[in-house]
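In the design runs reported in the main text, the only information available to the sequence generator was the tokenized backbone. The following block is the verbatim input for one such run; it is reproduced so that readers can re-run the procedure and compare outputs position by position.
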């Protein structure tokens, strides 16, 4: 009699079912919940940043200081999954934004100059930085000598919704809580 017929394969069946569920979950539509992504995949626009309406949609952490303002984007649909957890807040500057063509400055009525997040020695946003739900358009920013560089400019701001949340509070949210906040704000506005 083979091992499967004797019930010894039950653990194997459970393991295969668990693997199948993980594959289905990782490929599921993000309407069901946030998707955990490897750091490189997190930057893929179609997977994590562009919604069904073809607009770039994300949380915008807007840091403002005496010199100007600096944007940091966090995907509303995905999170960086590594080391068995959510490490998204460690990747705040991986979506590099070089400029805003005055679109963000005008829409949010900001003062000071746009400050790029493309430099490598940027501190995390201040705890008091505000968090918004952003919908609009980003376009590639040409970087001389680096034709494949993933650097963008904010080209258009369609929607900017204040979440009434500081960065200090936002960074403590789990990926599922961030996704729920996105869904709530998306439904209301």
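Verbatim output:
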């Amino acid at each position: 009699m083979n091992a499967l017929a004797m019930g010894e394969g039950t653990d194997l069946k459970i393991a295969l079912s668990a693997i199948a569920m993980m594959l289905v979950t990782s490929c599921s539509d993000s309407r069901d919940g946030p998707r955990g992504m490897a750091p490189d995949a997190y930057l893929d626009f179609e997977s994590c940043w562009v919604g069904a309406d073809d607009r770039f949609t994300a949380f915008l952490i807007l840091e403002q200081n005496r010199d100007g303002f600096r944007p940091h984007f966090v995907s509303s649909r995905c999170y960086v999954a590594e080391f068995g957890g959510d490490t998204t807040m460690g990747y705040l500057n991986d979506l590099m934004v070089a400029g805003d063509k005055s679109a963000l400055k005008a829409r949010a009525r900001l003062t000071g100059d746009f400050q790029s997040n493309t430099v490598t020695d940027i501190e995390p946003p201040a705890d008091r930085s505000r968090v918004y739900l952003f919908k609009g358009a980003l376009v590639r920013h040409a970087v001389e000598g680096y034709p494949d560089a993933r650097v963008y400019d904010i080209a258009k701001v369609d929607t900017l919704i204040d979440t009434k949340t500081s960065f200090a509070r936002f960074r403590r949210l789990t990926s599922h809580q961030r996704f729920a906040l996105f869904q709530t704000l998306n439904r209301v506005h």
